[in-house]
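Job type: complex structure
Entries:
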Amino acid sequence: MGEPRSAEITQILQDWNGGNADAKERLLPFVYDELRRQARFLMSSERSNHTLQPTALVHEAFMRISEQSGIDWQNRGHFYGIASRLMRQILVDHARSHAAVKRGSNAVHFSIDDVQIPVEERAHSILCLDEVLERLEQFDEQQAKIVEMRFFGGLSNAEIAETLGISERTVGRDWQTARLWLYRELNQTA
Amino acid sequence: MKAKTWNQVKDILSQALEIEPDGRRAFLAKVSATPEIVAEVESLLAFEGAAADLMDAPAIAFAQAFLDDDGPDNALLGQHIGVYKIIGELGHGGMGAVYLAERDDGKFEQRVALKLLKRELNTSSLRQRFEQERQILASLDHPNIARLLDAGTTDDGIPYFAMEYIEGLPIDVFCQQNDLSLDERLDLFREVCSAVNFAHRNLVVHRDLKPSNILVNHDRMPKLLDFGISKIISDEFQQTATITKLGAMTPSYASPEQLQNKATSTATDIYSLGVVLYELLSGHRPFESREHDLKEIYQAVIDADPPAPSLITGTQSRVLPFRSAVESDGLKIHTDANLADTKPNVLAIDAQYLRGDLDNIVLKALKKEPERRYSSAENLAEDIHRHQRGLTVTARPDVFSYRAAKFINRNRTSVIAVCLLLLAVVAGIIATVWQARIAQIERDRAKLEAEKVRKINNYTQNILNFSNPHWLSSNPKRNRDAKISDALDEALKNIDTDLANEPEIQAELLFTLGQTYLGQGQSDKAEKLLRQAIEKFNLVFGEGNLRAMQTSVILGDTLYIAGKLDEADIFYTNAINYFRPKVVEDTSQNKWLAIALNDLGNVYGNRGKFKESQALVRESVEIAENITGRDRYVLPVVKSNLGTHLGQTGDFQEALKYFNNALEDMRAAGNEQTLEGGSTYYNIGRMYTALDDYKTAEYNYEKAREILTNSGGEEHFYTLQNNLHTATNYYKQERYGEAKALIERTLKIQDKIYPNGHYTIAFSRRLLGSIYTKTGLVREGEDQIRQALKMIFQTFKEPNQEISLVKTALAENLIVQKRFAEAKEILSSALDGYVKTKGEDHPATRQCRELLSKL
């Protein structure tokens, strides 16, 4: 990240802290870049058996952006919310490019234990989830947000609760019920 | 769906989910909602089981495969690389992609896994390295190692290597799917060890052992992949890759030295084998709970003691396990197995089978210090095999003294380390209190025990608070710098307040903390706590109870070490009087009787009463002969000690018989390479020194040194004792230079570890003084010997052979100075001591008398 961009981010963050809601939208491309950079950085390196943690990734991005901008974030929760949205965007973008060369079945999988799932099916699964999640958003925006933060952002219930200003219990209940609904819808979609 | 409808559905659904499945029908019948809503709830409830794993791992782990932009290059399909034709893709990962290929030069049919490295890994030095190593790797011909068949570069310069293509499952998945029994798993694992051992003997280290690199095929044959590859690559990219590695992996299988970028060796593989075994037994990795944070897992691998597998087996994962799709670099993703219906923790073996031997074996492989692990994969396998056959294993649990010493050695210990030690202390107590009770006590009593455990938990929390800089502290700096001793002191302070009305738990804690202090060499504190423990045990169980008596033996040792022989005598005698009548009725406590007799024997020995000491230790041996099971480790120890006491009265041949006998026992039990084994060797050496057979003596000291430095380190008491005896052996051969160098080195260590003086320092100074006397430094000699004499009186009272020995040395020095009158006086009192302790016939007595007669 070059100097000019860093200055730009600082300005945006100051605007945001100053209550300018629009600043959040302007910040997105930078956070996206940073996350994407981080993700690629991590992807390209040697892996061990149990590897990548989105939380680590998001934290890392958070740290870098805070360091470079010198902003003292009052609420790291805001950042998590944004980062989760962006992680989703990044994954969906990638999935789209890989699903293009789709072959094999159209089954939807999300069990990570199954090492058998080919790349294309994984990509396809992510796209399906994105689609179904959009439908959930239409009648329960908060619940969709919870799923997004947990699955894409890798955040804990406590972190989600803090970000959204709701109780951890509500997060837990929404997550449980959302999974049932998503599961049913995903299977019908597939 | 409308938001309002969904809210109702969600609400009822959440309530239903909290009810046991049996009661849901009744609940839904009563609920006030439209039939449509109830139907929707029912429809969703049906997916409860199926959706349980949905999205249980974060998206990015799942999506790793396609996040990698340098992903599979389908364009390669059908292409030729070297003599191979690519026919499919097996997967891809961090280092590159792996393809299924077949030989295409018409010579013979062969399927291979072709691994293409990433372009950026293509450097000339790496290619060179590959060229060098290729021969060695290709010659690794073992049925359990996937052969490296070929290596080279493609036309456009991408390094590749071809490996034997293995169809199989990662070993953990295999064990899980085939529901292997404990024994079957251990058999399988031993095969893995033998393959690793084979490679090690050919000087090839793996460096990246993990379940996904250990495939098991249909014939239940384990095959190790990627041998030697990781080392080449990581050596090559160590500098640049460090940061990358830090960022990328959860170093679950990496050894502490790998994470610290220190030199790696075969011991690195032993560590990784330990992690794999840990996982195959418990279903968890040692620091799994800390894998969510890279810094934490690094810290843990480097600093924290892993929990024993038995403590963690079968517990719910705290971090949901996920296996990423491409972790295996593709080589492993080619079976028809369907893993979808495997459940978490099917791997876990019941704790009762792990407790003891297997815990010890795994933890030994996982030692932080490479030299304290098994010295070879073969030894690891052998120990497992011993366990399988019901023999004693060589792995021993860390004693508190070791752990404490480890912490003390580091001035500033990490917060985590302090916590872990205390947790270990308290966990141990919880485990004993809890298990011992649960077994015999009815249900309602169990509730009471649960309450006790809760109190202990609270207590632990407070200790943890002390050492956690983030928690509730007015002075975080102090906490970060907390030493183990500070934490222990703090722990002590709170025993009375936090555990009021729980004298039994207080007593157990005092007992454990007392032992910990003893291990730290703080015998004054240990003494205080152990005395309190006895008091509290007596309060709870009445005078003369088992726990109080066991504590008495430990207190006796504490007093003995502090040189308070008379008080030690009282506690040993009490314990002996308690245990002796029970010797037949309750054999489970015979270990304690044997120890108390043996140790009391030592007290008598130090007083020069060898007849009594020999009788006591003989009784100890007799009792130990009949001990069976784990406690039998006592037998060779007391046999060896009997040898020592026999040697004191000049029965060297008889003594040698017992020493050799003890060694045989240890060898049979695989315990020869221990502190006890080492000290037995030097005791044998001493006998030969006394018999003037210095060559044989030297051989035995050498043997002792080897074992003791390995098992106890340079600064261990026994190692220092062995130094003293070895130097004495040199001295007797008039090899003064060697004797002086060794004893000076020893004294340096002793002065460091015993800042307040110690009788063994007196022994060393006495010898150094004698060396000075012989080499012309007479004044310096006298000075050393007089210092020794002063120090030795702090511990021993006359008559005492050690005092006589120092006095004789002083007399010899005075004779050289021609101060005959003084010499004569000193020598007479030395002779008196010898006569009273060793008797007329002992060589030391005779030599002393001879010297005196010359004056």
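Summary: Chain B touches chain A through 81 residues (CB under 8 Å). The first helix of chain B runs from residue 3 to 17.
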